[in-house]
């Protein structure tokens, strides 16, 4: 069974980004793709900051990336780039750790002003790790995801139809690339 991993770089577990992640997880699973998630904010902070490649938590997270056919990196955009939390994890992915994998960003920001962060801050870094197969990323704004509930009862997210359509197209592209790569 093909595998995908979503690496969440959000430092905030109530982030609207989780609405995108949950939606994409459901869509991939419905198409027969096994989906795992790495939530970087849940990894030991000292292992990330001190670049402990041998840490059991980092080794386990990197194993998920290594075993995946597709790696989707999800992040809020702060100051025109993905989060530092996500960068600390990307720094721990082995050299050429993204070779042969379908890679796609799922980013969210307060406005479309930082839409190009996917191309100008994200792609060069993951390209250095061997990423060459890029599926279309999706950049959303906070206004496209309504968050209800709370930490105690659980957050729920409602995505606009336009955002769902763009996520569906991106998921379909990821799936097509996975199957194309698995045929080779």
UniProtKB/TrEMBL annotation:
<keyword id="KW-0288">FMN</keyword>
<dbReference type="GO" id="GO:0052873">
    <property type="term" value="F:FMN reductase (NADPH) activity"/>
</dbReference>
<dbReference type="InterPro" id="IPR029039">
    <property type="entry name" value="Flavoprotein-like_sf"/>
</dbReference>
<keyword id="KW-0285">Flavoprotein</keyword>
<dbReference type="InterPro" id="IPR051814">
    <property type="entry name" value="NAD(P)H-dep_FMN_reductase"/>
</dbReference>
<protein>
    <submittedName>
        <fullName>NADPH-dependent FMN reductase</fullName>
        <ecNumber>1.5.1.38</ecNumber>
    </submittedName>
</protein>
<dbReference type="InterPro" id="IPR020048">
    <property type="entry name" value="NADPH-dep_FMN_reduc_SsuE"/>
</dbReference>
<dbReference type="Pfam" id="PF03358">
    <property type="entry name" value="FMN_red"/>
</dbReference>
<dbReference type="InterPro" id="IPR005025">
    <property type="entry name" value="FMN_Rdtase-like_dom"/>
</dbReference>
<keyword id="KW-0560">Oxidoreductase</keyword>
<feature type="domain" description="NADPH-dependent FMN reductase-like">
    <location>
        <begin position="3"/>
        <end position="144"/>
    </location>
</feature>
């Amino acid at each position: 069974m093909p595998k995908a991993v979503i690496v969440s770089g959000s430092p905030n577990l109530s982030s609207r980004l989780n609405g995108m992640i949950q939606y994409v997880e459901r869509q991939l699973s419905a198409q027969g793709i096994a989906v795992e998630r790495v939530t970087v904010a849940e990894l030991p902070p000292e292992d990330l900051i001190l670049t402990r490649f041998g840490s059991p938590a980092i080794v386990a997270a990197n194993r998920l990336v290594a075993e995946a056919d597709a790696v989707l990196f999800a992040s809020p955009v702060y100051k025109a780039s993905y989060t530092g939390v996500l960068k600390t994890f990307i720094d721990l992915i082995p050299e050429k750790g993204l070779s042969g994998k379908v890679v796609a960003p799922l980013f969210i920001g307060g406005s479309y002003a930082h839409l190009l962060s996917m191309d100008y801050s994200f792609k060069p870094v993951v390209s250095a790790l061997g990423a060459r197969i890029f599926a279309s990323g999706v950049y959303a704004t906070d206004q496209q995801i309504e968050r209800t509930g709370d930490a105690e009862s659980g957050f729920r997210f409602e995505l606009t139809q336009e955002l769902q359509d763009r996520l569906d197209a991106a998921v379909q592209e990821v799936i097509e690339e996975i199957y194309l790569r698995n045929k080779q």
